[in-house]
UniProtKB/TrEMBL annotation, chain A:
<feature type="region of interest" description="Disordered">
    <location>
        <begin position="208"/>
        <end position="227"/>
    </location>
</feature>
<feature type="region of interest" description="Disordered">
    <location>
        <begin position="1"/>
        <end position="28"/>
    </location>
</feature>
<protein>
    <recommendedName>
        <fullName>Asp23/Gls24 family envelope stress response protein</fullName>
    </recommendedName>
</protein>
Automatic annotation (TrEMBL), chain B:
<keyword id="KW-0238">DNA-binding</keyword>
<comment type="similarity">
    <text>Belongs to the sigma-70 factor family. ECF subfamily.</text>
</comment>
<dbReference type="InterPro" id="IPR007627">
    <property type="entry name" value="RNA_pol_sigma70_r2"/>
</dbReference>
<dbReference type="InterPro" id="IPR013324">
    <property type="entry name" value="RNA_pol_sigma_r3/r4-like"/>
</dbReference>
<feature type="domain" description="RNA polymerase sigma-70 region 2">
    <location>
        <begin position="23"/>
        <end position="89"/>
    </location>
</feature>
<dbReference type="Pfam" id="PF08281">
    <property type="entry name" value="Sigma70_r4_2"/>
</dbReference>
<dbReference type="InterPro" id="IPR039425">
    <property type="entry name" value="RNA_pol_sigma-70-like"/>
</dbReference>
<keyword id="KW-0731">Sigma factor</keyword>
<dbReference type="InterPro" id="IPR014284">
    <property type="entry name" value="RNA_pol_sigma-70_dom"/>
</dbReference>
Length: 227, 180
């Protein structure tokens, strides 16, 4: 212990350049001539395989050094093995979300209804509804959903909006039809559920998943966009 | 479903708090375990992870998905723990050793008492390490991370990370050998 306490001041050696001083200051040459750090490293890398370095296995000093690490490993398993097997994250989640709900990021206001009305919805709320609509198409998962005034003018403008939605879709030979179906449902939700006049819905397919549950296809982004 | 994290993180960055809640639920248990082994105290681990998530919510709009959400979160928690350990130094208070594991009733009482004592001894020697040594050691020993990953997370060189893990092991093996 004593070798540690004086050697490193709290907070010292955190900069990228300070590594050099930290390396083998407390290394030890074993009676066989090997450095302790080398022996432990070899053990860690699995190089204590006798075929690769017969000395490590045969040497009593090296084996004693490795046994120390094994002892430590056993103590770690005993101490931590059964501890907090399953953290209950429920209470923590509630506390985090209490703070989050005080710090919402609702986004810009978007116009609802007719031009002369004074009814607005926040982008984050509208986006939630549109993502949910996209996900009514089986297998589709929605990511980014940005909603902007279609005509850039005075802010906030009351014109129709333009939706840009990113989706991950199941692998199908009819990607274009699928994208079209997503667009139709998003438009439907905007019209009927929200009353948000939409000028344009861009659907961007950012990934394709294998419906069999295998790994995602990871094909590049395919774009289906038309009014 | 780690592939889903990316979608949820994008949604959360755009202000969807439900997506963020799903991420918190998914990642909190692992992060709590990590923080507890770094801090040695379940209560402090909860504080660290809670602060880390709140800070993640605030920083999400700048999170561009250069790394996986889990990696990003992991890094925030490690740094939070490192700061907590630093502000805690110097620790001489022996009462601050972690609570030992509850005895496992499937093993004999003698054995349980022994592993209890081993846990206390280990906890005590862990609390004597420097914050950087402790964090590097936990990432290496308990999380099985490469020295390169540890270096990146902690913001030091891989050589320095290697040196810290080595020192931590020296301290801990000496303490455990003495204890046995």
């Amino acid at each position: 212990m004593a070798m540690n306490s004086g050697a490193e001041l709290p907070g010292s050696g955190t900069g990228p350049g300070s590594g050099g001083a930290d390396v083998p200051a407390e290394d030890e040459r074993l009676a066989c001539g090997r450095m302790l750090s080398e022996v432990w490293e070899a053990w860690e890398d699995g190089a204590d395989d006798p075929a690769r370095d017969p000395h490590l296995r045969a040497c009593p000093h090296c084996s004693a050094a490795v046994r120390q690490l094994d002892l430590l490993g056993a103590a770690v398993r005993e101490a931590g093995g059964g501890r907090e097997p399953e953290w209950d994250a429920g209470a923590l989640t509630e506390r985090v979300m209490d703070v989050v709900r005080l710090e919402l990021r609702p986004g810009r206001p978007l116009p609802l209804g007719e031009r002369e009305e004074d009814l607005w919805v926040r982008e984050a709320m509208a986006a939630k509804a549109l993502r949910a609509a996209a996900e009514t198409v089986p297998g589709v998962r929605a990511g980014s959903c940005r909603i902007r005034p279609a005509e850039s003018g005075g802010s906030p403008s009351r014109g129709p909006v333009r939706v840009r939605l990113e989706v991950v879709v199941p692998l199908t030979p009819r990607l274009r039809d699928l994208a079209e179906e997503v667009r139709r449902r998003v438009r439907g939700a905007a019209d009927d559920a929200l009353g948000l006049p939409v000028d344009h819905v861009d659907v961007h397919i950012t990934d394709v998943t294998d419906p069999a549950g295998a790994d995602p296809g990871g094909v590049g982004a395919e774009e289906g966009n038309q009014p | 479903m780690p592939g889903d994290d990316g979608l949820l993180a994008v949604r959360a960055a755009e202000g969807d708090e439900d997506a963020f809640e799903a991420l918190v639920r998914r990642h909190a248990p692992g992060l709590l375990r990590l923080a507890a082994s770094m801090l040695g105290s379940p209560a402090e681990a909860e504080d660290a992870v809670q602060d880390a998530f709140v800070s993640a919510w605030r920083r999400l709009p700048e999170f561009r998905g250069q790394s996986a959400f889990a990696t990003w979160m992991h890094r925030i928690v490690v740094n939070r723990c490192l700061n907590m350990l630093r502000s805690r130094r110097p620790v001489t208070d022996l009462d601050s050793v972690p609570e030992p594991a509850a005895p496992d009733h499937s093993v004999s009482p003698v054995r349980a008492a022994e592993s209890h004592a081993a846990a206390v001894a280990l906890g005590r020697s862990l609390s004597e390490l420097s914050p950087e040594q402790r964090v590097c050691w936990v990432l290496r020993e308990l999380e099985g991370q490469s020295y390169e990953t540890i270096a990146e997370t902690v913001g030091i060189s891989a050589e320095a990370a290697r040196g810290r893990v080595f020192r931590a092991r020296r301290c801990l093996t000496e303490a455990m050998t003495a204890w046995r």
